[in-house]
Amino acid sequence: MKTVEEAKELALTNFSSEYNCAESVVGAIAKAYGKDIDLAMKIATGFGGGVSRQGRDCGAVSGAVIGFGLLHGRTNSEELRANTYRPVTMFYEQFRKRFGSVVCKDLCGCDISTKEGLAKFRDGHVHKNLCSNFVSGAVEIFMNIEKKYIENTDHCTS
Question: Which of 27, 102, 145, 149 gets the most CB atoms within 10 Å of its CB?
Fold first, then answer.
């Protein structure tokens, strides 16, 4: 497993290489935990820009949710959803506390689902000036939760 700093650096490298926020976060998570990076990033593509530039849940948040699914998701209906829901809920709480929202248009200060909002996003270099913080923060929060979660022996058993 990579360190938090290594994973954050990879996520930011991905992000500056034209991968979207969701792809950047889940790609770094997948690499850090030895999961299929290509598949994870393909799954995340539609979540960038608050779900395909709709300004909804931040793509960095969605990338982390996909990451928790990669590590704790179910492969059959007998497994418990709570093993994934618990860390996802913790993630949402911590991301919201740190950044004030989990919603792309609130975080960016513009609605990228509109022509005007997308122009404001691009002209203001929001990708570089704001979103990189959300990408880095999402990876950091994810890895800190995951570390605590795997150390906890009280996983759901029923």
Answer: 27
